[in-house]
Hints:
Helix content is 70%, strand content 0%. It is built from 16 helices and no strands. The protein has helices at residues 2-16, 20-23, 30-37, 45-54, 59-63, 66-85, 89-96, 104-117, 126-139, 144-151, 159-172, 181-198, 205-217, 225-239, 242-254, 258-265. Helix 12 (181-198) packs antiparallel against helix 13. The model has no long low-confidence stretch (mean pLDDT 85).
Amino acid sequence: MNKEIGQRLKDIRLSLGLSQKEMVEGVMDRSLYSRIESGKTLIGISSLLKILELNQISILDFFGEWGEVKAKNSDYENAATDAFLRGDVALLTSLKNDPTYPAVKVKHVMGLMIAELNDDVRRFPSRIKRELKYNVLQIGEWDTNSLWILAHSMILYKFKDLEGLVGSVFNKFKDPKDYDDQVLRLVALITVNYLQICLKQKEASYEIEKALTYLKELPNLPVIMLEKMAGEYFSTKIRNNQEALKEIEIVLEEGGYGYYVETVLKR
């Protein structure tokens, strides 16, 4: 039972985008909590309740069907991604201010997304920027939450650091047939964002080709059709085929992604 509770705590922590230290701040020592997560140490009910209270997690959610909680997380993050790609600041703000969703790190990312849409990233709190970068490095594993955070915080990284992070994503998710739609969408989004960044760099032709090849090898599924079209757009842009570029732009604009065309593809 202690292993199941430890794994449940770990799953929740990762879904909230927290480090072990942040998960139990003021409740217990991080090293003790680490042993609880790994199932090596039992946790008392009072400590468990304090951790849940600290992170605004109801006891029903904790002992209920975890799959439903994870599904809610995915739905929430997907809604934020769609709002961002369409340039919908009002919807993003509404999601960020939703009191029923407690994931602080996710809300920090939404704040960054809003700042980016408002062209105000420079004024975004430096402390939160550092925390977001540290969080991705601290987690030490790629799951849907850490992938989502990376996908929407790539503007914070130096290119060399980003090169290593994206390389680890490509290495981790080598065979897209083994992963669900949520993972596919996130790795595709990361790839497109990386391509957009690479195109601004000098002597990044190898990274551009690597990203284009990775995106091309992802399956042609509706869930990543936007990212597939973005990859085709970048390939066409490199070939300087203006007529084909215009055709892709029209399709995306008609699909409601005019903002995406102007701020990502044309940038």
